[in-house]
Design the sequence.
């Protein structure tokens, strides 16, 4: 079993000295011991993207991540590329770099290397350039020249890396142990033996312990090398999603009736966040405003939970019990999420209201599943986040809709009934009164979305 | 850049006509008694060309070294612990765990910090750069919530950060003034800005307001803001005996070197500050306590130190823009003429900093009015010292003033553009001096045409697009021309036809090195590649602040002065055997790699030939810029006409900006690419000010509650529409190169243009920033 953290850095193998803190962030390591200062620290909490580096997958995929949120132990067995690792022909600037410089897409230059790496990933992965830039803040240039340059990027067709084989590993440093199991059996054994250890699913929340709160967690069990937790399978009825599968790899599965969930996930953090963050992590932290949770509630998703004692099934609705509280026992891990597809006649609508379009925590989030039959609402599951101590269904509003004709009065009744379902707080994301009024508005909008799909409801890509 | 090209062509005719007139009329110039900068005459060539920034290739490769990236032998890393109370004293500091933590080299507190003088407070002396003048970890007193109480040095950043989190402090807290209402209740004092009282009365404005047939009178509130450049403050520093070398993120290298010398009781020349690249500053990158603490800890530990603030550390230690509460009242005749403008209010400040946010500055010169009453009162609080942030005064002052004008226009039933033009002053309303160049009316007309202002429906809430209410709004942007004393530059011309410019100026992303290289190339008649521009080092000539949008003028004037010395020296070297013989320095200029007669370009000799005949490898010329008397002779201001299209969702209250146009009048534009970027960047920060930026201050604890980019929202690119920028490009005959600064004006007027567009969309007048979704539902 390996006791050294090893990975590929810009194509070359690196093995860290024994005793290196496994919870040191990749960013601190790059800028400190590695002396690679092209990668910048702007916020150390995954907001600004100045520390963007790219994880290169064996299949050629490129996942941009925030180096400030990634713990070194988590990088074991990965291939990492930083801005120093980009080269053009004859050692000159890489075409991605050249294009950004020519487009005057750099001003003070501090956010630039992160944008270069996001662009390099985008050149291969494709997709909406707006989305590729969502995780990078710039305070000088005004984004437009960057976006223009990004839209014209071409893949360099560089071959994928040959990843090191990483079996189960365990890294220790003064006062710290970091388990990196590579099989489910090993994970469950470790979990039973170390119930106080932190489960590291992606690190977009937990990573803040090290990066922002300056802690050195004593015991961590990382989930990224357990094959069962990384798998996704699907059939006509729904998907089975490994709990530690990053959102970025989940997105391609969310087609058809689940497409509204995909659109919401594209506003869950940035690509950098989605390259690390996982549904299992979102469930495990059980934040009252976790973006994905209302969707899981509306769809009636279920969980497979495992321990050395065996496996059990649990509806998401029963799993969440209060503010950051769940029914997960100390020796258990979430194995997979069972996500049903909307059936024929069912419509899924997802909403997220935030002060800022991207990279913001929702003031109110909502997910609604409606079954419409013969001009009536045959069934309704309405779930909200940000409206109480936990994401929850709005049962009074559901009752007001269920069985009613698909017309304005039913949605007005549901909006009125919603006041009984929720207990929002006032904070700087929005007052209690705003949250209620906006959530009620979302129910009115739900009617329009179904009855008047031609109305422009969103302003995107301005 | 086709938009820019079009814009330039559109105004070209007007620009040329106006320039001729301006030069003909000019009895004076930026150099009093002299002529307008001869460069203004050159209409073609490098000036104004959209040259890509010269350091772009370095930056995209991650090879531009920022302050925290200078590797020094034996360097240790610093982390800072912060006070959790607003006022009182430290009763006890438990350092045992921190000192025992892995990798720790030193824990420094008030008990072992070397004795230091306070930082000289910014603006209190020519080279003073300190954000506050409090003792720096010299005693157990606490002055604000977030004050540094300990510095940990360790072998890695992670070890230093971790150890600093283990420090336990207990305090004897004392009652603190941390609520704005309480501070006001304790009494206010008139604010002073650069030695002048922020108070002015012309006529009896209150009486004129009361007698006016139409009037508005309202209160506007703007919150605290933080600069939040993407690069946090950082310094890497080392002592060599009693000499200090500091690699800083600075917009004031010479100021910082002098100020640090005062703090440590050494000679100015014993401190060298470099700052080759700065990851944004916006007014924040001056001298704050972290550089002092880093240098003190390095002295104590006997090792070089890297002190890089976390994003939280920035919010705790680096001041931002303070809050304002402003009353604007305007009395007018039914035809729109202003009889009275009253702009008064209160700002929060500390007893140990120099800036009461001077929100009345734009009102001094923006409009003609029969009477004026302006006043900034200060309420003192126990908090982090506030400071200059992009367009201090104008950014928030124009929000109140320009919203009030929009409110008045609605009351009068007048078009807000016409109302502004109707009140255009002929001379400076306060000083009575003539304007050096004022073409705001042209900017309004060109902007209105391009934006499609005539299609605006004046009835609020009348335009809908599905769920969205759509509105148009406008506002005036304005920022003064400044040029501070102290500019000096050195030019070294070598026989190979290259010139090196040296000046202790700064590059924070504005494109200084690029634009100034263009100017120097044009002035000397050299290709751009023949110019190298050295800056960002206190050992170079000049005291040049990158602030107040004055760096362009300060460098331009200093280089022009050095150039005159250079030309005189070259003519002397050329002697009587040269075609130039007999020409005076003011009769020659740079042309095709040499000097030539301005009136007889055929009389020319190349630099290479002059130097070769004189047997010289190089000529060095150094000179100081003349004092900035032009600002005494003329009222010098840049302007902009800002147009905004806003959409507000009827269901959710979400505001979105769908179009924005800035039509600018900032004198001559030196580089179309970098200037457009500066305008856009300013406008985007103005969109942030309008819609999302707010430093949350807990009035129960005196603590900043959102010290992060997760909770202090700066615009992401999806918040930013396509921003169109055009400009008059009419040179100011009294400014070097005819150019006024462009760095700050973009943020002015923008907040009001957004608020006015949102009013037009919804009928809702939001007078407290930011305009968030919950205020619109």
Sequence:
């Amino acid at each position: 079993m390996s006791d050294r953290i090893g990975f590929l850095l810009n194509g070359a193998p690196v093995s860290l000295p024994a005793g290196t803190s496994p919870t040191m962030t990749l960013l601190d390591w790059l800028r400190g011991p590695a002396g690679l200062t092209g990668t910048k620290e702007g916020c150390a909490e995954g907001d600004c993207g100045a520390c963007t580096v790219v994880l290169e997958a064996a299949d050629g995929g490129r996942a941009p991540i925030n180096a400030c949120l990634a713990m070194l132990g988590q990088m074991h067995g990965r291939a990492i590329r930083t801005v120093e690792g980009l080269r053009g022909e004859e050692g000159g600037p890489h075409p991605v770099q050249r294009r950004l410089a020519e487009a005057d897409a750099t001003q003070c230059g501090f956010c630039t290397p992160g944008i270069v790496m996001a662009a390099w990933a985008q050149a291969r992965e494709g997709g909406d350039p707006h989305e590729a830039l969502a995780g990078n803040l710039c305070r000088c240039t005004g984004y437009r020249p960057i976006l223009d340059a990004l839209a014209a990027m071409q893949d360099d067709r560089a071959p994928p890396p040959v990843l090191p084989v990483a079996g189960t590993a365990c890294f220790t440093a003064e006062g710290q142990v970091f388990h990196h199991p590579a099989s489910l059996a090993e994970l469950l054994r470790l979990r039973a033996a170390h119930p106080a250890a932190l489960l590291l699913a992606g690190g977009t929340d937990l990573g803040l312990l090290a990066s922002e709160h300056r802690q050195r967690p004593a015991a961590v069990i990382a989930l990224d090398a357990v094959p069962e937790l990384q798998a996704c399978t699907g059939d006509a009825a729904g998907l089975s999603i490994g709990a530690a599968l990053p959102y970025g790899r989940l997105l391609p599965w969310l087609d058809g009736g689940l497409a509204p969930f995909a659109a919401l996930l594209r506003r869950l953090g940035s690509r950098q966040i989605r390259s690390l963050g996982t549904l299992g992590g979102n469930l495990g932290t059980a934040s009252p405003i976790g973006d994905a949770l209302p969707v899981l509630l509306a769809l009636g998703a279920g969980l497979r939970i495992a321990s050395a004692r065996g496996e059990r099934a649990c509806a998401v609705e029963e799993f969440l019990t209060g503010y950051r509280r769940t029914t997960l026992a100390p020796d258990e891990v979430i194995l997979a999420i069972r996500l049903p597809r909307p059936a024929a006649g069912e419509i899924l609508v997802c909403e997220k209201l935030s002060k800022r379009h991207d990279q913001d925590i929702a003031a109110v989030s909502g997910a609604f599943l409606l079954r419409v039959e013969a001009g009536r609402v045959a069934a309704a599951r309405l779930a909200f986040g940000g409206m109480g101590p936990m994401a929850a269904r709005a049962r009074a509003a559901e009752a007001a809709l269920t069985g009613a004709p698909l017309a304005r009065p039913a949605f007005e009744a549901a909006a009125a009934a919603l006041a009984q379902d929720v207990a929002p707080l006032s904070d700087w994301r929005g007052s209690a009164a705003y949250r209620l009024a906006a959530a009620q508005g979302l129910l009115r909008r739900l009617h329009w979305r179904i009855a008047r799909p031609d109305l422009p409801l969103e302003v995107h890509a301005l | 850049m086709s938009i820019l090209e079009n814009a330039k062509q559109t105004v070209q005719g007007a620009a040329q006509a106006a320039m001729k007139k301006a030069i003909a009329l000019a009895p004076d110039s930026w150099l009093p008694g002299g002529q307008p900068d001869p460069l203004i005459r050159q209409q073609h060539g490098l000036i104004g060309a959209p040259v890509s920034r010269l350091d772009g290739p370095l930056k995209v490769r991650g090879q531009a070294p920022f302050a925290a990236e200078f590797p020094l032998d034996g360097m240790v890393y610093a982390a800072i612990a912060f006070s959790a109370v607003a006022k009182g004293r430290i009763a006890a500091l438990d350092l045992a765990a921190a000192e025992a933590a892995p990798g720790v080299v030193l824990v420094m507190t008030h008990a072992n910090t070397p004795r230091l003088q306070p930082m000289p407070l910014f603006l209190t002396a020519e080279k003073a750069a300190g954000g506050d003048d409090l003792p720096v970890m010299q005693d157990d007193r606490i002055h604000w919530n977030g004050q540094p109480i300990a510095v940990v040095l360790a072998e890695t950043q992670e070890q230093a950060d971790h150890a600093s989190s283990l420090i336990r402090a207990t305090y004897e807290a004392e009652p603190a003034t941390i609520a704005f209402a309480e501070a006001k209740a304790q009494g206010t004092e008139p604010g002073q800005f650069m030695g002048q009282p922020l108070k002015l009365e012309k006529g009896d404005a209150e009486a004129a307001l009361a007698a006016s047939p139409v009037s508005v009178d309202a209160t506007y509130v703007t919150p605290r803001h933080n600069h939040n450049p993407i690069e946090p403050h950082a310094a890497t520093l080392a002592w060599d005996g009693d000499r200090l070398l500091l690699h800083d993120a600075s917009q004031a290298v010479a100021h910082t070197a002098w100020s640090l010398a005062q703090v440590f009781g050494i000679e100015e020349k014993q401190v060298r500050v470099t700052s080759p690249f700065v990851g944004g500053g916006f007014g924040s990158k001056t001298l704050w306590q972290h550089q002092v603490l880093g240098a003190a800890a390095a002295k104590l530990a006997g090792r070089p130190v890297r002190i890089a603030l976390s994003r939280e550390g920035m919010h705790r230690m680096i001041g931002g823009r303070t809050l304002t509460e402003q009353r604007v009242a305007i009395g007018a005749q039914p035809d729109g003429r202003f009889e009275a403008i009253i702009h008064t209010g209160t700002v929060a400040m500390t007893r140990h900093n120099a800036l009461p946010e001077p929100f009345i500055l734009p009102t001094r010169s923006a409009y003609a009015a029969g009477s004026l009453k302006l006043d900034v009162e200060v309420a003192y609080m126990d908090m982090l010292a506030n400071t200059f942030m992009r367009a201090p005064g104008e950014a928030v002052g124009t929000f109140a003033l320009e919203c009030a004008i929009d409110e008045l226009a609605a009351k009068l039933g007048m078009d807000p553009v016409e109302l502004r033009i109707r009140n255009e002053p002929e001379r400076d309303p306060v000083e009575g001096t003539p304007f050096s160049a004022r073409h705001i009316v042209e900017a309004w007309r060109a902007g209105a045409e391009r934006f499609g202002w005539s299609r605006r429906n004046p009835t609020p809430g009348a335009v809908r697009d599905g769920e969205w209410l759509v509105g148009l709004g406008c506002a005036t942007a304005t920022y003064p021309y400044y040029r501070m004393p102290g500019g000096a530059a050195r030019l070294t011309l070598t026989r190979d036809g290259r010139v090196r410019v040296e000046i202790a100026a700064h590059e924070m992303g504005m494109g200084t090195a690029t634009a100034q290289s263009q100017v120097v190339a044009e002035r000397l008649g050299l290709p751009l590649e023949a110019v190298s521009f050295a800056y960002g080092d206190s050992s170079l000539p000049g005291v040049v602040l990158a602030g107040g949008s004055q760096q362009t003028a300060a460098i331009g004037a200093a280089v022009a002065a050095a150039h005159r010395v250079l030309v005189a020296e070259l003519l002397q070297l050329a002697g009587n055997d040269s075609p130039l013989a007999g020409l005076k320095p003011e009769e020659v200029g740079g042309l095709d790699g040499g000097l030539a007669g301005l009136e007889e370009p055929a009389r020319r000799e190349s630099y290479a030939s002059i130097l070769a005949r004189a047997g010289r490898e190089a000529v060095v010329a150094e000179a100081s810029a003349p004092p900035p008397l032009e600002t005494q002779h003329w009222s010098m201001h840049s302007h902009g006409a800002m147009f905004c299209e806003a959409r507000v969702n009827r269901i959710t209250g979400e505001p979105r900006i769908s179009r924005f146009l800035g039509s600018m009048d900032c004198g001559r534009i030196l580089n179309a690419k970098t200037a457009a970027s500066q305008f856009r960047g300013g406008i985007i920060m103005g969109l942030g000010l309008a819609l999302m930026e707010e430093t949350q201050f807990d009035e129960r604890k005196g603590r900043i509650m959102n010290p992060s980019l997760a909770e202090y929202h700066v615009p992401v690119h999806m918040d930013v529409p396509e921003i169109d920028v055009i400009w008059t490009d009419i040179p100011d005959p009294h400014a070097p190169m005819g150019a006024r600064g462009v760095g700050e004006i973009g943020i002015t007027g923008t907040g009001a243009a957004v608020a006015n567009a949102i009013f037009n969309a919804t009928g809702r007048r939001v007078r407290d920033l930011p305009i968030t979704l919950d205020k619109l539902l």
The mean pLDDT of chain A is 93.
